[in-house]
Amino acid sequence: MTNLRDEARWLISEIGDAKRLAKAVGKPQLANSAIEAGKIEEYDADGALMQIVGEQHDGTHAPVTVNGPVPPEPVAPVITVGASGVEGRWSGKFAGDMLSPMDFSHVALHASRVEVFTPSNETQLATITGELGDVATKILDAGEWTFGLVAVSKAGKWSDMSETVTVDVPDFSGGTSEVLDALLGLGSAVDGKITVDIKPPTLADGEGKPADALWNELDPVTREQVAVWRWTGTAWESLPLSETIIPKVSIGQGTYGVLEGVRLAADAVDGKTITGATVQTDKEAAKGLKLDTAGMRVYGSEGGEPVTEIRADGGTVYSITNPATGEVLAALDSEGGVTGQALSIAGESRLDGSVVTGSDPLTSGHGSGDYGVTMNGRDTLGATFMKYVEEHPNVADGNAWMTVIPHGIVAHQEVSAPDQAWNAVGGIDHARIRAVVTLNAVYGRMYQITYRTPAIKETSSVGGTIGGAAIVYSNPGGSISAGATTNNALRGSRYYLRGGGGFDQAMVTVYARCPEDIPEGKIMLGPEVYIYSGRAAVASDTNDTARWSVIVADLGIRRSAYTGRDIDSNKQGTTPPPVPEPDADPVKQYTDTIDATWWQAYTGDGTKATHSTYSGSAAQGRSPYAPGNGVMRGLVGFPSQAGRLSNATVKKIEVYVYAKHWHSSAGGTACIGVHNHGGAPDSWSSSANDVKRQKLKKPEGRWITLPSSVHAGFKSGDTKGISFLPPSSSTSSEYYGLFKGNRTKLRITYTK
C-alpha cells in the first residue's frame, strides 16, 4: 500500500514538471541567449526579408538592413560656385516637412550636363552622411550643370530626386596658370635678381645670387604676394613696407593684427570693438557727439553746453538742456530721481503702485488723505473712492487701493454641447441654458460679462428672426433654469438669431454695475437661448462651433450713475418680446480656397508626357535639352464652382502657382490660360490661352490674380481649371518651366 502511494506521488510530480516545461517552451524568449555560427533573420508580414543580425554572407558580423520603404524626397540643394570648385549644401530637411526615416543612410548629390535627367550611379558626385545636413565640394569642368539630391536608406532604396538647381561653372584655370607662369618667369628676365616663388627662401636659394637680390613669396593657393625678402650676400632678410609707401597703397580689403599710427582718416570704420580715449563726430570738442571716460555728451551745431548728457562720474546720470537758454529740461539722477518740466503719458501710468489712466498731466498729490488725483483740475477718482470706503467700513484705508483695482476674471464656464435641438412647434423645448457661473456680486463694482452661444441653424424653413439669446441671472441665493419665470434678463445682453438655413451665433459683451444692473450677493448667471413659438433649430455638430461660454471680469469700482438721466432699474421680463418683421438676409463676402484635384503635362503634339521628369507637374515651353518634346504645355483641374457661385457676385479669382523649375536660373514667365476639362484628357486643349502672364523666380510660388474675363466661366461651371502654353507656341527658353501640380490652388472672393 505504501509503494502504491509513493508511486502516485511520483507520477503527480512528473506530470506537474511536464506541464511547467511545456508552458515555458511555448513562450517567446531570447533573454541570455547566444548565436553560435548563425544569424537571426527578420521578415515582414508578407514574408519579405527585412533585416539580418549575426553572421553575413561574407563572413562578417553586423546588423544589416536589406529591405524597407523608399525614403522621402529631400529639399533642393543650395549650390555655390567658387574658384576652388562647386559647393553643394543640404539643409537636412525633406520636402513637405517630412521627418528623417529611422533607416536613413545618406543623401547623394547628383549632377548632369542635361537639365532634365534621371539620377544614377553615373550622375552621383558625392554623399552627405550628416542627418542634419552638410556640404559636399567638387571640382567640375566649366559649363552649365544641373544638380539634385537623392536620399538613400540603409537598405539601398533611393528617394525621388529633389527639385533641381542649374548653375554656370566658369573656367578659372586658364588665367591662373598664365599669371603664375608669367610671375615665375620674371626671375630669368632680370638675371636672377628677382625671384617669384610659392615658398619662402632658404639659405641654399641664396647661393650664386648677387647682393640685394629680391625674393617675392606668393600664397600657394591664391597666388597673392605675402612677403618680400632681400639677399644680403650671406642671409635673407624680410623687408617691411615703408611708412611713406603705405598711405599711397590702395589696399582695398585686408586682415590685420595691429595698425599703429598717429591718425587714421577714412570714410567709414567697421569693426567689432573700437577703443579710444575720446571718440567724437566733429573736430571741435564742443560740437556733435563726444564719448570719453566722463560719459556721453551731445552738443548743438553752435557749440556751447551739451544738449543731452549721460554722465559716468556720479551726480546727474542723464539730462536734457535747452540749447538756447542752458536750462535743464529733464534729468535723471544716480538715485533714480526724475525731474522735468511736464509729464505726458499716452499709455498706462502708475503712482505708488496704483494705476492712473489718462494722458493729461497729474496736477494733484497722490496718496494724500483725500486721494484727490486730478487731471486738468477734474477729480478722476477721489470722490468715487471715498464713497466706496464709506459704503464699505470694513475696508481699511491702508489697503483700499488693492480693493478698488480690477480683479480680472472672476468666473468662467465653457461647455461643448453639439447637436442640441430646439423645437417650439409644439410649445416645448423652446429655451436652453448650458454654461452657468456663480458670481459674488459686490456693491459698488463694475463687471464685464461676455458670452457666446453655439452656431445655430433654423430647421423649420420659415426664415427671418427665429429667436434670441440673453444673459439671465438669479436673485441672490437663487438659481436659474431654462425658461424659468424666476430668471432675470440682463439689460443690453440680448441678441436676435437669424434663420433662413444658415448658421448664426451670438457673441456679446455687456457691462453691468452692482447694484444698478445686477443685485448684490451670490447670484447665478449664464446665456439662455430661446426659440419663438412655431420655430425649430439645431446647434452645430462640431466641437469648435458648438460651445457655450460665459466669462465675468471684475473691472473695479464703478462710477456713479449719470444723474441727469432717469434710468429705469426694473429688469426686463421673462416673456420673449414679439417677433420682429423678417429682414432680408444681409449680403456677406466670402473667400474660399480650393486645392487642385488633377494635373498633367503634355508634349508639343498634345499627347500626355510619360517621362518621370514630368510626373506630378504641369509643363510649359520647349526645353533646349529635350527639343524632341516640342513646345510642351500643361493642365491643372479643380472641382466645378457652379454650386458655390450660384447667385453670387464674383469679386476676384486668384491661382497659386509654384514654379519648381525654369531653364534659366534667373526664372521665367508663366503664361496662364483656362480650360473646361473635368479630368485630364488624353489630348491637350484649352478654352483660352495666355490670359495672364507672370514672372516667377526659380523656384517660387505666388498668388496670381486672373482677369475678370474668366469670372463668368468659373461661375457657370464651364471653366474648370488653368492651362499653360507659351504665347504663339514660342520656343524661347524664357517660357520653359515645370509647375508642381499638388501645390496649385484656386482662391475665389465673392459676395452672396
Walk me through the structure.
The chain is mainly beta. The protein folds into 7 domains: 38-67, no CATH class; 78-171, Immunoglobulins (Immunoglobulin-like); 174-241, no CATH class; 279-340; 355-404, no CATH class; 408-557, icosahedral virus (Jelly Rolls, Sandwich), CATH 2.60.120.660; 590-751, Jelly Rolls, CATH 2.60.120. It is 8% helix and 37% strand. It has 6 helices and 50 strands. Strand 20 (328-333) and strand 21 form a beta hairpin. The chain is extended.
CATH class descriptor name of the largest domain:
Mainly Beta
Largest pleated sheet: 7 strands, antiparallel
Query: Which spans of ≥5 residues are poorly predicted at pLDDT below 50?
Result: 357-380, 561-577
Q: How much helix is in the residues? A: under 10%
Count the E strands: 50
Strand content: 35-45%
Q: What is the overall silhouette?
A: extended
Q: CATH architecture of the largest domain, please?
A: Sandwich
Can you tell me the CATH topology of the largest domain? Jelly Rolls
Our count of helices gives 6
Average pLDDT confidence is 79
Question: Which radius of gyration do the C-alpha atoms yield?
Answer: 43 Å
List keywords for this structure.
752 residues, mainly beta, Immunoglobulin-like, 7 domains, 7-stranded antiparallel β-sheet, 6-stranded antiparallel β-sheet, 6 helices, 50 strands, 8% helix
What topology emerges from the helices and strands here?
Elements: H1 2-25, E1 39-43, E2 49-54, E3 64-65, E4 78-82, E5 85-90, E6 104-112, E7 124-128, E8 134-138, E9 143-153, E10 165-169, H2 173-184, H3 186-189, E11 194-197, E12 214-218, E13 225-231, E14 236-238, E15 279-280, E16 288-292, E17 295-299, E18 306-311, E19 316-321, E20 328-333, E21 338-340, E22 349-351, E23 354-356, E24 374-375, E25 378-379, H4 382-391, H5 400-404, E26 408-416, E27 421-423, E28 431-433, E29 437-441, E30 445-452, E31 456-458, E32 465-473, E33 488-489, E34 495-498, E35 503-504, E36 507-513, E37 521-531, E38 536-539, E39 547-557, E40 589-595, E41 598-602, E42 617-620, E43 633-637, E44 649-662, E45 668-675, E46 688-696, E47 700-705, H6 711-716, E48 721-724, E49 737-740, E50 745-751
Parallel strand pairs: 11-12
Antiparallel strand pairs: 1-2, 2-3, 4-5, 5-8, 6-7, 6-9, 9-10, 12-13, 13-14, 15-16, 16-17, 17-18, 18-19, 19-20, 20-21, 22-23, 24-25, 26-39, 27-38, 28-37, 29-37, 30-36, 30-39, 31-35, 31-38, 32-33, 32-34, 32-37, 40-50, 41-43, 42-49, 43-48, 44-47, 44-49, 44-50, 45-46, 45-48
